[in-house]
Amino acid sequence: MNHWLTAPVLIPLLGGILQAFMGYAPISLRRTLALATTVLMLVSAIVLLVLADDGSYRIYAFGNWQPPFGIVLVLDRLAALMLIMTAVLGLFCHLYSIGGADEGNRQFHALFLFQLMGLNIAFLTGDLFNLFVAFEVLLIASYGLLMHGGGTIRTVPGLHYVVLNLIGSAIFLISVGMIYSVTGTLNMADLAVKIPEVSGEGLNIVKAGGMMLLVVFGLKAAILPLCFWLPRAYSKATAPVAALFAVMTKVGIYAILRVYLLIFGDDAGELANLGMDWLFPIALATLAMGVIGALGSGSLKTLVAWQVIISVGTLLAPISLGSEAGLSAALFYLLSTTWTVGGLFLVSELVANQRGTAQDRIITAPKMQNRTFLSVLFLIGAVAAAGLPPLSGFFGKVLILQSVQSGTEMAWLWSVLLIGSFLTVIAYSRAGSIVFWRTVEGHLEKPDPLNGRISVAAGALTALAVVIVVLAGPITRYTDATAEQLHNKDAYTEILQTKMVREDS
Amino acid sequence: MELVFALVIGALTASGVYLILRARTFPVVVGLTMLSYGVNLFLFSSGRLATGEQPVLGTAASYSDPLPQALVLTAIVIGFAMTAFVVVLSLRNLADNEDDHVDGKQPYKSPAPEEEEVTGK
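Above: the input entities. Below: the structure tokens describing the complete assembly.
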């Protein structure tokens, strides 16, 4: 039992409840408290990262119930990595929103913190049904955040997003029911023990349940046939919200990693590596679709939204191959791409604010005021996203390319990834050169000057691409250890042996 | 009992899916509700259907599983809240676009052919 594990859940929960009751307090007070909550959350994530780095599993059992019977939170290296990624992204998005985007809705900070709470529960939980509840918590907050900012443009994408996710939740429940009806448990560690023993007519039910679960996680991660809701919803959302949503697709990827490596892993008997042979071609098709969308996008935010889909494809391809090196490479790229995409969303919004009615559309417009600052930020973001040296995206992609063993998979992955990256470079250079260089003479109404908070937030988030390169050594060591830990299923199932009541008492 | 139960779940899910595929928000909302009813019943049945059995702590060899009931309770609460939200969102859609089509407007129809231009010579 380690009580630190509840900190990333309790801090945003308490902070969010406080915000919910403080809707009419002065905005400066609300902002200070909200930012303090996010900073505290980051501190707790750092503590958990240090704790998890020794490679052992720590659990927190609610109500002190022995694991298969009660709900547990489980901390391992992967969970800690996701927590720190979310906390850093959340902090910069929050800082940006305090620059003015949080006005107009008294509950913005509450929703933002509840969203972070839902993400943290999803990363920490060791129970399949609790994962469903975490998905619902983060989705309910995200519905509210997506609609934030007023105006009518968000209604239709928001409606699509809500309806799709409600259908996804229904499918999630059906698959959970199917798995429970055969195994009689929903604890992930217990499932990992019981699934290999399933045989007979129960086998097909679990198989169907497992595949439906892949559909749900695929909808969250936005893989190909289920990705068309994403560009419209993300490009219409307010910038800090869109940047925070960059981590939402990664929740789907995290769930795929967790469930399919642990429960349907290599030694799951007849159900070993369920669905992974489907995932590889789908991942490559998602990557190709994202590149096509990026080439055809008409505004900066849509371009970045398609970049989210590109990165999902790039991440899932090595994950579906299942090698340890591929997993480690994918985790490195995950860190890099999430922060980069978040930064690009913030930069696009800054650009849009400076261009009057041209907004962030990729068209010629009068010259911007802070053109140099913004174009450098966009350049860094675009280079990191497209995977050009010397920034973090390049190293992520090189690690992914190195991780595949030679064969048909290598031929497919190398060709799709390299051609895709090349076309992404074209998409970014086209967008950047039109927006920043092809300006016309003209008069623009003087835009609000860049204030400190939003420039710091956007700049710092983008500059993390450089920080990742500087820290590439320690990060690779950590992701290697994470991949090794993920492949060692027995250590995870040992949490079932944890004694909840001391023997001597 | 199993057959009736399965038929009810099937009918609810089928009508729910049919209604979700409609083009107006009202049938979509009703469809989502029916789908969630079907899912709740399905989840309930995952602990096996049994009548008059003791709960898990009883002395009998067969017992009724209490866990699916806890799961269903959670699912009902979440489903109810989500239905309320989606109703409000559909009303907002209706108000914003003056149309309750799920895409906010009717799909594009080619305009009626214009009347022939009268050209004076």
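Note for the figure: The interface with chain B takes residues 129, 133, 136, 140, 143, 147, 152, 155-156, 158-160, 162-163, 166-167, 169-170, 173-174, 176-178, 180-181, 184 of chain A (CB under 8 Å).
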